[in-house]
Amino acid sequence: MSNLLPIAKINLTGGTQTRASLDQDTINDYRDALQDDATFPPVIVYHDGEHYWLADGFHRVHAHMARKLVNIEADVRQGTRRDAVLYSVGANASHGLRRTNEDKRRAVMMLLDDVEWSGWSDREISRRCGVDNSFVSRLRKSVTVAEPQTERTYTTKHGTVATMQTGNIGKPAGQSHYVVDTDSGKLVQVDIPEHPEPEIIVAANQNAPGPATYRTSFTGNNEWYTPARYVELARTVMGQIDVDPASNDHAQKTVKAATYYTQETNGLDKEWHGKVWMNPPYSQPDIVHFIVKAIAEYQVGCCTEAIVLTHNSTDTAWFDMLFKNADAICFTTGRIRFESPEGEKAAPAMGQAFTYFGPNPERFAEVFSEVGNVVNMVRQASAVRDFAPPIRTPTGRDWEQDDAA
């Protein structure tokens, strides 16, 4: 038996997504079908008394969010996160969007990387995942082969370049790999998560050749902070900041939110009541999790107003999600000079965007036109073909000349 369940209650970030990535075309097709009053099967959710773990229906949930729907039809079953994972690994073997080989590989590896499930026979894992026994056997053998150490460069949260040793990627949970910051030359140890989430980047250049781009998380020795000027602009728009869900003690010297959450206290599993300021972690899939959470909190009514600071990464699915749900966006006319705890300034390799959710887009435009071009939305600008949204241009700037690009 299914019931309507608020999307904001569903945990999308608990490691139960077993696809290698979500398909944006499928999400768009489902969204359009919902607009035509199509009926979909209920999503499968496991409830442990506290959390609702999504086991099947990630594309449907994202399509509902794209339509700004607050609730979704759900088949709620009693069980834990692990029950949801076990259901998820074989959920699309015979229905739904056809799985790719990478989807099948990820499902099998989620069991092989687990202390308990890796003890199962190849035949049992293949049955659970809906794949051939030989497929499991090949993957099991592959995880015992040591991979050579190689280096991969990546871009940090604010545009600086660092190098990652990739030889340990794919090893069992509990081990670590190291990131080398090329500016400081220091090694930073990073724990490999038990069940890393897939990237939800569905950009036009996703399969194009070239090096992968990575961004670091929002805490640690290499953290950079939003200059006070921009936080004060947000405070001017909203009147106050009630919640900062992705923060730390140092950032709060500037933000001064009534409530804030750190990596340790985990804002993703809390409700965000009132007016929210958020500069989320830019690593994948963290940025997706925080953006999905922000949109859901606003749609369900917990969050009454929000301003989200990100890079203006218009080629990513997460930015498209922001754009289609926003009430206004400010594209900065330069690159923000983020600050380190020691007062150093960094110039990222791209510009930034402030995304506004709330009832006062004109006030947002009036205030943020000081630092960029503001686009006010009428519903979704992309869905209004003949509508040219008003644009406010900046009235002043404090960037260095070589930062405007």
The end-to-end distance, rounded to whole angstroms, is 55 Å
SS class: alpha+beta
Number of spatially distinct domains: 2
| Count of DSSP H/I helices | 11
Q: What is the succession of H and E elements?
A: EEHEEHEHHHHEEEEHEHEEHEHEEEEHEE
Instruction: Output the strand order for the largest sheet.
Output: 12-13-17-14-18-19
Overall body shape: globular
Main beta-sheet annotation = 6 strands, mixed
Cα radius of gyration in angstroms: 22 Å
Helix content range: 25-40%
The number of E-state strands comes to 19
Please indicate the percent range of residues in DSSP E strands (runs of 2 or more): 15-25%
Architecture of the largest domain in CATH? Answer: 3-Layer(aba) Sandwich
Query: What is the CATH third-level topology name of the largest domain?
Result: Rossmann fold
